[in-house]
Amino acid sequence: MLKKLIPFLFVLLWSTGFIGAKYGLPYAATGDFLSIRTMANIAVFVLLIVILKQPKLTVKQISHAMVTGLLIHGAYLGGVFGAIEYGIPAGLTAIIVGLQPLFTAMLAVFIFKEKVNHWQWLALILGMSGLILVVSASLAITHVSKNALLLAFIALLGITFGTLYQKRFCQNQPLLPSVCWQYIASLLIFLPIVFVNDTQPITWNIEFILCLAWLVLALSVTAILLFMYMVERGDSSKVTAYFYLVPPATALEAWFLFDEQLALSSILGMVLCAISVYVVNKPTRNIVAP
């Protein structure tokens, strides 16, 4: 029973990432924000590794974990936060990154020979349609810089190829040491951004500290471990289908926290996303594990 709840707990936690970015970015630039967050992540994971006496990784395992970290944490987080800082609408960012389930499914068929039947392909496309409906009310592509769009697509490529790389090369690695090395690798991306884009001083206040604490403990620790657990034990196309539920969850959170209105099209989109995830993950004789 608890295992069945893991994907939905992941969606709930992961969806707060955009909310956290909206709260935190006014107080720190992308490079500073992500560097501080990542260093806190590393400190937490080192503490957990010591307390739980986790095994050390081999040099080969460390190298694979670091590549995964550069993609999932470095490219994805750096791309999303950078795009938001450049002023891209959250709705447009959600649509671009929301292409991941379709993109991952297509690549997984060729790379891992995963079997996706016609109904599941239809469900993935249906989910994409639902995703567009969810954010259509707030979508605005005018006055969006090329740099912002480029960063959003870098985020899409990072989370997509990072998921596939994790599935292919990091199977059966101890999760805590593996994720710790992933964050160490991502720090190699974030720290140079601090020096390149040193335009906004950090404003230390209670809002920023609480936002940072939530992103570290709820997102970078709990949600990431849940995500790695799901990737290790499921088909890539099935796991990433849950990302269709993230924008609807974020929209509901924004409605509750910021009193943002929900259009009828957004509600319809949420229903389509839910149907898509159900169909993709429904057991069927036509789907075989890689």
How would you characterize the overall build of this protein?
By secondary structure, this protein is mainly α. The protein has helices at 2-14, 16-24, 30-52, 59-85, 90-97, 100-111, 118-136, 146-169, 175-196, 206-233, 236-241, 246-258, 264-281. The radius of gyration is 18 Å and the shape is globular. Residues 285-290 have low confidence and may be disordered.
Largest sheet: none
Parts with pLDDT < 50 across at least 5 consecutive residues: 285-290
Average predicted local confidence, pLDDT: 80
Amino- and carboxy-terminal Cα gap: 24 Å
Computed CA radius of gyration, to the nearest angstrom: 18 Å
Number of helices: 13
Strand content: under 5%
Helix fraction, binned, reads: over 70%
N-to-C SSE series? Answer: HHHHHHHHHHHHH
Structural class: mainly alpha
Indicate the overall shape. Answer: globular
Q: Compute the number of strand runs.
A: 0
What's a quick, concise take on this entry?
This protein has 290 residues and is an all-alpha fold.
Secondary-structure topology with pairs:
Blueprint lengths: L1 H13 L1 H9 L5 H23 L6 H27 L4 H8 L2 H12 L6 H19 L9 H24 L5 H22 L9 H28 L2 H6 L4 H13 L5 H18 L9
Q: Keywords, please?
A:
mainly alpha, 13 helices, 77% helix
